[in-house]
Amino acid sequence: EVHVVESGGGLVQAGGSLRLSCAVSGFQISDYAIAWFRQVPGKERKVFSSISTFDNSTYYADSVKGRFTISRDNAKNTVYLQMNSLKPEDTAVYFCAATRGDRIQTTDMEYWGKGTLVTVSS
Predict the structure, then answer these.
(1) Contact (CB, 8 A) for 18 and 118
(2) N or C: the chain end with fewer CB closer than 10 Å?
């Protein structure tokens, strides 16, 4: 049985940091590209960071580039997202998702977590 569980969300002041974890069981993350999405109520869920299987190449949306860092620990079967210099506009529910494919879009992901809420106060 597959489980994808995000943790580490919470309330933080602007300028602060959080580290999200995405713990996986039921498959090996080394075989999957892992992506982080986020969603604000009333808006679509969007990918903003991902890490590939082949060479651990990473992707960051412009909105988080230079502030967020994605990494994976295959031994722990966990993906991390270090978020620094947080802004109020980073407030969202953060989701972790996995795919064996090359495309990282909402409809391409095979497994999803239930999300963790990040709230950044001004």
Answers:
(1) yes
(2) N
Q: For residue range 83-99, list pLDDT tens digits in order.
A: 999 999 999 999 999 99
What separation in angstroms does the CA of 92 have from each of 1, 27, 36, 55?
28, 27, 12, 29
Amino acid at 63: S
Q: Report how far residue 37's alpha carbon sits from residue 45's, in angstroms, rounded to the nearest whole number.
A: 6
Residue of 78, 58, 68 lying closest to 38 (CA atoms): 68
* Mean pLDDT for the chain overall: 96
Take residue 27 and report the two structure tokens written for it. 């498959």
Question: What φ, ψ does residue 76 adopt, rounded to 5°?
Answer: -95, -5
